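input
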Amino acid sequence: MKIEHFDLTGKNTFIIAELSANHNGSLKNAIDTIKSAKRAGADAIKLQTYTADTITIDVKNPDFKLNQGTIWDEKYFYELYQEAYTPWEWHEELFKVAKEEGLICFSSPFDITAVDFLETLNVPAYKIASFEITDIPLIEYVASKGKPIIISTGIAEIEDIKLAMEACIKQGNSNIALLKCTSSYPAPMDEANLLMVKDLAERFGVISGLSDHTLGIVAPIIATTLGAKIIEKHFIIDRSIGGPDASFSLNESEFSEMVKAVRQAEIAVGNVDYKLTLKQIKGREFSRSLYFVEDASAGDLITEKNVRSIRPGFGMHPKNYPIILGKKITRDVKKGERVTLELIKEDISKLI
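output
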């Protein structure tokens, strides 16, 4: 599965800086954020494409008032999205800036009109946001465009994930990645359940990753060690500019530290390989082996007193110690000599 030039089946994790509402209503902030994300080491910048009218309606009754224990409680949906949306007339410029910076740019559409609009910008991929995973008609329409699809699973039960994947496959699109996501803002660490990153990949046979809303950078690092091939994290140039997502977003220095840590985690995970490297082979010199630990004469018996298993590892393997005990020595030896086959006079056919 590729998104533009980035191969998600390769060794590197695809690191996405989520712009979301972190422009705080300023095109300049949005452009500066993209440039900042590049400096921080992101591979991609992701937008959100909606308006308040395409995502909800302007009604002030209890159904439309946020009361889910979020940082946005007491606001109405329309009010929140009117504040948070990225104007569509900015998109072309933001895509252009991202390309100039060498960042992959794509978006989360929230209705069919947003998909049609994004198609005019030739987006390389689509993201289905957590709360849209139940919008099967939207997912089918996105899948019909034949682009890779990244789906967050924040509010999903297994049946929801199955339905979303079936919607994609029904359209002949199996380029699907699933992200573990905890749809709390910010998300408590004890609800991160990062083992699901591995389970999503194994259970559904897809690339998996993490859309992270926890504070800090610990969760992305752990997710990488569990096989995450995608890490998405909200990004902001400066939390002091404010905005709906500012409190759980990373600034440039924090995001940069996350990228460095993720890249180190990729290296540390490595591969399953029992062959020793040259350094490890050299390191075996520090292992145990059998040595004479006192002078002995030809004809003396090998005993626990004159032969021991000690460092370094140039002598006979310690597994042979019980077999050689009681055997005669063929010649005089000095303290510190390696025990070798030619120093043992009697039958040594049982040596392992």
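quick obs: The longest strand covers residues 44-49.
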